[in-house]
Each structure stands twice: as structure tokens, then as C-alpha cells.
Amino acid sequence: MSNLAEQVAKLHAPLDKTLFRVLSLVLGFYHVAMVMWDPELYSESIGGFNAVISPMLIWAICSSMIFGLSFKPRNWYWQVLFSPYFSLSILIYLTVLRLI
């Protein structure tokens, strides 16, 4: 691994715990289930699907699955793109919107 990849891996080290991986998987599966079960109700509860929410939801779900299944990208740019910091914050935000 390159030096930059090692630095990004160190940045992700605090979240590299089983609890966060399980949380990531549970949130990802929850949002997939809600979209598949009743997309219209889910859309209404989060404020509608639009050009910002939809791609961020898809990206956050994919990223949460990558992180939750302990897949570690080699290159730094993939590590940043699939960062658990971004995916967990998006999924937690959508969960709060959905449940409130």
C-alpha cells in the first residue's frame, strides 16, 4: 500500500470495529428493505426522491455494504470514496428523517 493509503486507513481505524460494521450493515439493509417494501411511503417519509437524495442513498447503501462486509479497498481514492464516515452519516440522517 502507498503512504497515502496507509494514512487513510489510519483515519478509518476508529470506525474499524465490529459494532460499527454491524451498524453499517443493519442500516444498509434497513434502507434497502424500506425502498423495496413500499417505495412511495419511504419516499414521502424522507422528503421525496430527488437528484440529490437518490444517488446519495444508493452510494451510501453500497458503501455501507462494502464497509460492513469488511472489504478494504487497496487504493486511497477508493478508501475515501467508500468511507464509512460518509455512508454512516448519510444513512443515520435518512433513518432520522424516516422515523421522525
TrEMBL record:
In terms of Pfam families, this protein maps to: Cyd_oper_YbgE
Q: Which UniProt keywords apply?
A: Membrane, Transmembrane, Transmembrane helix
What residue intervals traverse the membrane?
A: 20-37, 49-70, 76-97
On whether Zinc is a keyword of this UniProt record, the answer is: no
This protein's record includes keyword Protein transport = no
Instruction: Tell me where the signal peptide lies.
Output: none
Q: What is this protein called?
A: Cyd operon protein YbgE
Recorded source organism is Vibrio sinaloensis DSM 21326
